[in-house]
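Q: Structure for this?
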Amino acid sequence: MTDQSVINRDRTVAERKREKRDPQQRRAEILAAAFACFAERGFAATRMEDVAARAGIAKGTVYLHFPDKERLFTELVSGIASPILGEIDSLVHNEAIPPRFAVSMFYTLFRREVLETERRHLLRLILAEGPLFPAVTEFYHREIITKGLTVLRILLKRAAERGDLRNPLLADMPQIVMSPALLAIIWTTLFEAYEHLDTQKLFDTFLDTLFVPARAAPEGATP
Amino acid sequence: MTDQSVINRDRTVAERKREKRDPQQRRAEILAAAFACFAERGFAATRMEDVAARAGIAKGTVYLHFPDKERLFTELVSGIASPILGEIDSLVHNEAIPPRFAVSMFYTLFRREVLETERRHLLRLILAEGPLFPAVTEFYHREIITKGLTVLRILLKRAAERGDLRNPLLADMPQIVMSPALLAIIWTTLFEAYEHLDTQKLFDTFLDTLFVPARAAPEGATP
Amino acid sequence: MTDQSVINRDRTVAERKREKRDPQQRRAEILAAAFACFAERGFAATRMEDVAARAGIAKGTVYLHFPDKERLFTELVSGIASPILGEIDSLVHNEAIPPRFAVSMFYTLFRREVLETERRHLLRLILAEGPLFPAVTEFYHREIITKGLTVLRILLKRAAERGDLRNPLLADMPQIVMSPALLAIIWTTLFEAYEHLDTQKLFDTFLDTLFVPARAAPEGATP
Amino acid sequence: MTDQSVINRDRTVAERKREKRDPQQRRAEILAAAFACFAERGFAATRMEDVAARAGIAKGTVYLHFPDKERLFTELVSGIASPILGEIDSLVHNEAIPPRFAVSMFYTLFRREVLETERRHLLRLILAEGPLFPAVTEFYHREIITKGLTVLRILLKRAAERGDLRNPLLADMPQIVMSPALLAIIWTTLFEAYEHLDTQKLFDTFLDTLFVPARAAPEGATP
DNA sequence: AATGAATGAGGATTCATTCAT
DNA sequence: GATGAATGAATCCTCATTCAT
């Protein structure tokens, strides 16, 4: 938010009137504003005017880019998740990467790309509005959950075969790997104000619970 | 005009099914109806009329028991959690119960009392509406989370001392024990329609991940 | 309008607030107000608030009786025509009434019940909004036009057989009988302010054009 | 940002099909488009963008030719009627033309120039929007109605003097001659879809009703 | 001149809340 | 206490009009 105002600082409000922009950029600005609003207050409590105001444009302009509030919402939540997925994918397909390290990277990625950004509100949004927007829920299940679990399953299977898992049955319940991520989101979203959660430690502890300790000295290392 | 009111007076008397009830019971009925509505559609999308209709009463009657929609909501979510807590508490204070069994019971209790009832929507409600009702969030942190974590911490410490935990550091991150419960709620709330999650297996696998396998025969047990 | 204010004169505006009425009466009041508004300004230019204000109620109250503006309009125009039809019908079924007299009565009825009341705006409404409300047009064709023409056809046939018509072929074009009525409506609606049209004379002249002059003394009438 | 404007400059130039046209022609195109739109949907329901789209130009361009929607409408309806008038006029001033033939020609002209063209919607437009545009109504009365009636009056007077009229009083109510024209417009506009009206027959029948039958053998024919 | 993105006033509709009965 | 008709503030969305390009 601060950055943005910096960008516009050199022009007064009056000057910014009727400013034409690249449609793609304008669209992106609206989506950003909408996400902020929806994340803050939820779908119903967000007024289109709020979104417009936050995007620095007039009410009507939003409607030049999105036909209605519902579509603004669904296109928003659909579009916001995709980027993360690609990176996760690549973690698996490199077989040289040890599974534990891959999962560790997944958690790191998750912290950096979700927990520490506004994206952390996404789960809340989907959870909150899901029942009213089944298409969104279905999209998330199909595009994010299924794909993520598939990747994890492969990873855990490999780990189990290598004897890395404390509990080899984990390979059959990949959701468990995701559970501390959910916890972290919910905690930081709801309770962080009242009690801090050290997510680094959370994920580290969980990793140590899932995986057997790194063998201090791999086979026949030192005498 | 006079005739009319006479006419109406007759009809009105005839129509008065207006069952008076014990105020406490009526209040409970409203809360139940409200919970169902809020759980289904969220705070904003729920109309007071929906609540009244589901409670089988008239719109105005709700206002005889709750001053406004907001209070109806906050009193609702505050009141709904308490009952669970007591049972959990007792699980810990009996030191004869092995920690693993206590956690197992906690999961069983959670499945029976939350997952398999309408209460499973509670988390969604709190998560969804939390930002608009900080008092609710604060209440849940103070009354449920803090107390629950305290109990778990004791339990895990005892488990660690007994060498029951795969990773003794778990004792310092009791939130982890809660994470599969969150996962289960979120999954059943959002994705169950698209893909079934075997929560029994989830919790069992999780237990086996946290705790070292039950020693087949505690040394020198039988003979 | 004046009459109405007389009715309410004994109560101040403040006193009339939240006045409950017989639903049927309230509905009728709304319809009356709506008709006045629609007739004055057309469908699009009429605001629901105008209707409410003219009915002396609040905006929202209109929606307790009609689901939306469109339905208010269609129910209005559908409901407004029916009463006239009955009377016309009875003109024909009495064979003792000479055709010329029946048509004359039809014109008289039309003047009294349509031209000289607010109903004269009805044609304008239907004509104006017809294309946007095909159901209304269809209704008018089916319920009013078809029935009216059927009656006229019978009447004209009888007249032709009696040798009353200047042009017997008229019996095959009953629409012609209606044409001065249309003219009268259009004139009084649009041009009366600029130039008076004597509708009595219009219909009389038209009658004399359609029908042969009344025989001064039917043969052998008097001694 | 500079790059961007460069990019746009290129594209813009490429896209400029912006055909300049003779202003009069452009104006006429807009009027034609506007008439089609207004006739189809009425004043209020017609969007300026509809008009522009149908004229194949951009929204803003309309405003280069007409200051606002209202003026577009009034200039349109005022301009559209004039052409017909000239022809009608000439029908009367030739005294050699028998009155019946002149009226017959008037009907023929009316069918060809109004009923069978988009102009048939003009009456609907004026009737529908008249109350909102008194200037238009007044214009029509002054320019079309008064002039038309004057012509008809002369014609009918001449016919009456020649003994051509069944009812000589018609000369004093020239509106009657117009009434089947109104009927034809209204019918074809509203009801043609549901029931066909043979307008040729309508006018023929009416002519035969107004005028005495053409004498089979003029002067001194019979024994 | 021509364009069409941007504006914002305006109007339909909803729904929490009130209150006469 | 119970009712539900009535209220009107609030919000979505449209579209006439403007103006930078």
